[in-house]
Amino acid sequence: GRDVTEDLADHIAFGNEGFHVAKLGDVREENGEYQALVYWLGLDEDEASWEPVRSLYEDIPIVFRRWVHQHEDQEEVKKMAAELEKTLGHSL
């Protein structure tokens, strides 16, 4: 389950936005940009939204990296991570 550290990381990341990430779901490529499905704390699952992975990496780097490493066996996540690393110029 979620621990205090992860909750704290989410709060620090989105404390000023008003929305906190509950979990990250699928990944897709849309018009040349990778996006991840974000489930938000306090909102129903059908209110999840597709967000650019670059923004997620910048806003919640700890949670995002953990999610990538937990799902790097999935081909789409692996391709997304490689593309993001190329864009950033360093590894996740």
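Above is the first protein from milestone M3; the second protein from the same milestone is given next.
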Amino acid sequence: MKSVLTTVALSLTLTATPLFAGTSPQETDQKPAAEKPAAEKPAAEPPQQPVEAPAIEPPVRPSQPPRPFPEGSKVAYVDVQAIVSESAEGKAASGQIQSFADKMNTQLQPKTKSLQDTEQKLEQGGSVLSEEVRAQLQRSVEQQRVELQRAQQDAQRELQQLNADIQQKFIQKLLPVIGKVAQQKGLHFVLSLTPDVLFADSGLNITPDVIKALDAAAGTNTPPKK
């Protein structure tokens, strides 16, 4: 018997289209500091948005009614993002990343609040503050901004690393399942549905079969769509 060749083209570049993405609260608006002496150095740039993981926007294609798999076809495709969104394994992985992102943002809140309070003191002080106190507050604002920005960058790196690790484990579980479904259907190629694909016959979509097989391998059952 000829061996079955299964090829799956998966977009796994984290910075481009991550399979899993955690969300984060919006960056807190920084109020402008009170007017500073002309000789003073400009304030540091505001911190970046914390723990940011870009959301995935699915490709827009004309919807097609489900069709039976064409008899004798040796090629099929899967929607990896749909597998992530609808399978029990994918939902669990996404939840793990979201929980981590929420935890990181919670840890950053005290630094953010401290910076806001210091900026408010500087702004509300106005001309009442002495030059010495004003200078101290301005230095404190700049220092806290730098510290917050570094903490945000560290949290973002941790989130990206976790995303990459979980994504790799998910793919390691997914590929054998796709191969098994491909063998059952006698396929030679299984392709990944990406935004570059302008049209794909719905009859060649084996995503539901893969989700069902993946959940079965994990010991869970995904309820059918209504």
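Note on the second protein: The CA atoms of residues 77 and 191 lie 4 Å apart.
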